[in-house]
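Backbones bend. We report:
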Amino acid sequence: MTSQSVTAANAVLRVPPASPAAAAAYFAASLAFHADVSDVAAALEAGGDPGFVVLDSRSTESWDQGHVPGAVHLPTALIAEQAARLLDPGVPVITYCWGPGCNGATRAALALAELGYRVKEMLGGFEYWVREGFAFETWEGPERRTADPLTAPAGGEDCGC
């Protein structure tokens, strides 16, 4: 059996991988557009100025249910009218919404980029913030849940990524 017939029979390799140069360009671009939940949490927990602001683009009801401590609340629909009042255009913005099944953070990032802000989207959103065991705030006060072992290392601080 030739490698060509294996490739044709295998759905994974039916479309061959990109060249190393194209892959490097794609993944470098991806990192320029996305931030990992654990990296955002580590930067915020380190103390001092992390060099960015976190923006929750969800509704007020969602914000009240739970949000990243210190985040700015600015629903996507209000970005055009309120961003200049709430955000420093010289400070990068990390957007988030509910989770990977929601593209609200992507829409918020687009709206901010169109206004001239440097922006990244936090992968996993609020769902993975909570699932990885990071503290969050609700309308009732601070809260923290045990990390889900499917999203964060059990008993470890670093996944090794």
